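Table S2 (text version). Query chain:
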Amino acid sequence: MAKRYDNDFDAEGFVENFRAKDEPPAPRTLKEKQPVTEEQDGVANRKEKTATERSERQKPTDSADDYKAAYIDDLKYRFPEYGWPQVKINPAFCSRIANLEILCGNRRANLSTFINNVLERHFRDCEAQIKELKKKYNDNE
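Corresponding structure-token output:
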């Protein structure tokens, strides 16, 4: 029989918590969006405004360093405090993300950090559209 110790120290949990508190290696240098002033000039203005909003949303990140700082170096979501639900992701996307992380030299980042950073930015950037959808479909939250 193996020896049994009366030690309830959770080494794995300690390591995960220690790593989760790591600061990202590079400071975040993302530019903040300026608030959009709304005017009630009619349908033409709304169409023009939505076209510019759409182009702003589709505009890529300013530089490779900004992209790296936003999606790869931000380790806020590396080890969650509690379990999160599992999702199925296309293996091609997984390998592309892993290659990006390796190329950037950040071996501590993982698939979870990248996806959560992308989702966080999406919900932050598209907050107005999400609120509009909630208002349209009467979803009070």
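Notes on Table S2: The first helix runs from residue 11 to 20. Residues 28 and 41 are 38 Å apart (CA to CA).
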